[in-house]
Structure formats: C-alpha cells, structure tokens
Amino acid sequence: MKGRNRSWLATAVSLALVLVMALTGCSGTNNSGSEGGKTTNSGEGTTTNTDGAPVTELEGTIKVWDWDEAFLTKMVPEFNKLYPKIKVEYTVVNNADYMQKLQSGIASGSDVPDVILGEMNYRGQLFDLDVLDNLEADPYNFSRDQLLDYLPSILSNSKGELVGVDQSITPAGLAYRRDLAKQYLGADDPEAVEAMLANWDAFIEKGKEVQEASGGEVTMFASFDDAYRVLREQNSKPYVDGTTVNLTDRLQKPLETVFKMRDAAILGKYEAYTPGWNASFAKGDNIFYPMAPWSAKWNIAANDKDGIGRWGLIPAPEGSYTYGGTSVGVYKGSKNKEAAWAYIQFAYMSDEGMTISYKEFGNMAGTKEFFEKHKDWIEAGTDYDKYFAGQNLNKTFIEEIVPTVKADPQTKYNAMVQTAYSSLYPLWMKDTSITVDAALEKLKSEVKNLAPEATIH
Amino acid sequence: MKVVKWIFIALVTAVSLFPFYVMIMMSTYYSENIFKGLPLSPSDYLTENLMTVFKTDFIRVYANSLTVSFAAGILGVLTSTLIGYAVAKFNFKLKSFLNYFIIITMMVPAQVGLIGYIIEMRHMGFGNTLMPVILIWSAWSFGAFFMVQYIRDTVPTEILECARIDGASEPRILFGIAMPLIKPGIATLSTLVFLWSWNNYLLPLVTINNAKSFTLPVFISTLGIVHRTDYGARMAALAMATLPVLIIFLLGSRTFIKGITAGAVKG
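The joint structure predicted for all components is written out below.
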C-alpha cells in the first residue's frame, strides 16, 4: 500500500521536476521561433487616390517604440492615409527605460523595434551598440547634405555613418526673466540684454552686480549644472579617438569658466531637473536658463503657467549649443526597412508630416529644405511666443542661434563622462575649496573607473 | 502604561500611513505645483489628473494586473505547496538534492536569468502576452522553500499516516488533511505573490511590448512623459493601484502575520 503510494508520488514529483526544469531555463535548441520571422512582403509602386495624392503600395508591419503617445496617435493615422498598407505597431516606452528594454530585446532575440529613438542621454551608447543602419546606404540613400550643417556630427556613429535623423532640432540659447533683467540688468529687450553679455567675463561681472544689488537673493543661473551644460556644449569638439578620451582638452575650458562662476557666487543652489529647480522658474530667483525649442513648452510654460510675457530668449554668450534632442534611426535587423524609412521620412521630414508635427507639436525638421520651404510657418510664430512677450522664438532660433551651433559626435564615452560628472558636481557646487584641476583629475579617475579599457588624457 | 502604548501605536500608525496620505494629496495637484511645498491639503486638480489617467487604457491595464496577480497567486502557491509537501513529508531519491537545488536557485538574482527566460518564453510562443509575467511564478524558489519549512513544522506526519491507514488516497490526504492545516502559510504566500507580481516592473518592462498587455507599474511609468513627468496623474494612478494591495493585505493580515511567525518558535 505504502509502496504503491510512494511510486505514485515519485511519478508526480518527477513530472513536477521536469516541469520546473522546463520552466526555469534549460530551453532546447528549438530555433523555429514564431515571432522572429514576422515578415511581410514589401512591394513598391505608387498609385494615386481620388484627390490625386500619391498612395504608395509599400506594405508591411513596423514596430515603433516612442515615449510621445500624443505624437503617435496623431501621426500614425496621417501616415496611413498615404501608406495604407503599412501597419504601425507602436509601444510607449519611457525614455529612462528605453536602453534596457532595447538591449534585452536584442540580447534575447525577441522584439526589437524597426524604428529606434536615441534620446541625447543614451544616444552615444545606442550608436556604439552598432544596431542602426547607415541611412546613406541602400535602401535609404539619404544624404547628410540635406541636414542642417551642425547635425551630421551628432547623428553619426563612431564609424562616421549617419545613423539617424533629428526628431526636432535642438539648438539652444538662454531664456531669461524679463522682469528680473529689467530690475537688475537695466534692460529687458533681447537685443540690449544680448549686447550687455558679449562674453562670459561680461556675464560674470554682471552677475556679481546682480548678486550685490539683490543681497544675494538673485543669481544668474539656477544651477551649476545649467551653466556647465551651456559651456560644455558650446565648447564642443571631437575628443574620443577609438579608446582614447581627451578629457582635459575637451573640458578644461568649460570647467574653468563654470568654476569662475561658482566662485563669483552667481550660480543658484539647485540641481537641474529637481522639483526645486522646476519651481524656480515661477519663483524668480534666477535670471537665466538654458533653452532649446522644446523648452518653451516643457520648461517655461509647464513650470511658469502664469509667466505670459515674462520671458525672453537670446543666444548664449560665445556661441550656441545643442540641448537634448532625439535621433530617429532604423534597426539593422529590421525586416521592413523601407517601410520603417517611409515612416521616418513621413513623420519627421515630409511636408505632410511636418504640417502636423510643427503646428501641433512645435517640432522642426532637421533639414535645410524645411526652413527654405516653410519660412511662412516660422514667421507666423507659435503659441508659446506669448510667454516671451511676442518674441518670435523659432525665428530667433533659426536666425540667431542655429548659425553658431556646435555639437559633439556621440559615443558611449559621452554617457560615461556625463554619469561621472553627475555624481561629482553636487560636491563641486557646494565645496568652493575644490579647484578646477582637482575636479578635472577626479573626473578623469571616475571615467577611468567606468571605462577601464580607455586611455584618459 | 496603557497610554504610552496607545501613543506609541498611534505614532507608528501615523508614520506608516503618512506616505499614503501624501500620495493621495499629491494626486489632487497640478504636477508642477506639487513640489512648491509639502502637499498636505488637497488642491483642485484631481478631476484633471483622473481624466489624464482614464483617457488612457487604464481599465484594461488594471484588469491585466489583476489577471496577472491572481493567476500568479494561484500558480505560485499551488506549485510551491506541492513541492513543499513532497519535500517535507516524503522520502524519495534525490530529495536532498532537490532541497539544495531550491535553495541554490533562490540565491541566484532574478536579473541573471532574465535574458534566458525571455528567450524561453519566445520559443514557447508567449512573446507579447501576459504569460511570461505569470509563468515566472510557477518555479518560485522562495515559495517552495517557504512551504518546505512551513509544512515540515505544521503538519504532523502522524496525522498523514492515520489517514493513510484509514485508506485515504494521497490527493485526498493532501487536499483534505494537509491543506487545512497550512492555510495560514498559503495565505501568507498568496499575499506575497500577489504583492510582488502586482509591483513587478522589470519583467513586464522587458517582456511586454504591446500596450494592450501592459501591467500597472509599466503603464504608470509611461504616463505623462515627454520632457515632463506628470507626477499628479501618476500619483492618481498609483493611489488607485495601491488600493487592492491594501485590501488584500488587510484581509489577509491576521493569517499573514501568523504565517510569517509560524515555525519561529517551536511549541
């Protein structure tokens, strides 16, 4: 009796064990996965619909991972009017999780989107994964000459291949509070403020005056990080050569200037993108903030709801820079490259797509053609100009800020340098006994820890 | 003395409930106003925040999370109980190996096996469904380990033998005699699986690429992003997401505590 029960149990347990084993990992070599080969034919050819608009016969299903759901829900149906046979499956992915999700997808051979977004924070890392297609080769045959001059360097991988187009250009200048500028600098007109701040030395001198006049209440920048962001990017130059990272050459000058600002006490106490920093826009204890085209909506209007007419925009002293931004590229392993490229072209560069993208979302394509063709759009201004007392923001960006923009090519080391910097700067801003040289040495050793294979100069 | 005790209890209660209170208050604010001070009194933005949340697929996501957590609970507890019962009450070949195997798998962090698990799920044809987030609990080493200890301590072998002598079949012994004895353990384990699978973020993040199958944590992380984080809306969603967990815990708290402390003192 007992023996029989035992054998019943033994069978049950071994069955359970087999099940557990099967579920915990030792999967076989069955490679005939059902998902990897989701191919659909992509044929080409164009016909026209009743309105005479060309409708292309391109077919297929493409996957897009994006964080901007509002953009997708608007853009995808528009795209489908022109490309009815391309099915766009999109997934909303938080940009903070994008790389992790992408890397697990690639490593496990499961879902990887056909259209991949590269936010500036992780762009170098993404480009160095070498999973994006060269857009200047077949079947895309795009040319970097079509892009604004500063763009190819931040859209190319370390092999020099162009692997993305810009979601929306991000040239940046300085936003300033008109009320504070009037009170402490004596003028609130953009031209006058710009003239006053011809270079960073003049900026620092003015900052000292503001500091004195306000009894230390008002500072020029809200954060050490804001100032550094501007200085670092405007001193842009290639500094990574294979595994050699020339940090001194790249960062000595911006760090010197930002430390000078710190010592002159013209930088606020906030760390950028903290709740306090967000609240400071409305509070009015800082005059200047870094500003790209997207900042009008996401920094100014979002943080200073009542700030109509309160802001101004000028180019930064000593030149413009880039602030944030997202590249859009095609996955090398995509089964539907042509369809993916059609989507990118439509959503980020075509006239039809840009009509929606610009008018509803304020995105500006990174192509020269866009600015030649749509001068009237730029002239017409945007809703956010009202925060800037009617100053035409996009016109200011295009005419005054874009011409001097410089930008770094992105490699994984950019992300590492940024990580190292982020962990160090809170101390630098507080402890004034830390000198530029000491800070730079510390930064180098931190980067070395993150990238032991690299030679850091 | 009683007063001191009550004051102490009141204090601890206040401290533990304060974060929930702040979360609920935050959900009534416009995101950018949350951080202007400590949000202790309600503001007037709750309806808008709720609208932001409900304008999306919140109900479906909620249903997904409930499905996942209940299925995970049933599956996880069932397999754990079976393993626990077998290892604790039967002698068979490789029993001690199985026991060690459970402990060893418990020591391996889940992240290490993540990629392998995704590959496995893909080959089983479960890509882009809720299955990967549910099935992970079917081989839950902690649950098995817990049940082995729990059953060893609470189910007297004599009772099982009595039942056997009276001619009860093995399944009946398990379900009719052992199960009622280990109810607190099952309640504890169910609460734990429910909590963990309800709050699980990493696994659904990397296995689910289809908004239709999103679970709450992943969904909430995608609420109101694009250069700005809509904390108000997220807090509103979180407040609603926390509710079932609180209810489950309240319902099960008595047996839960019993289960946790069982076996701590040998009577």
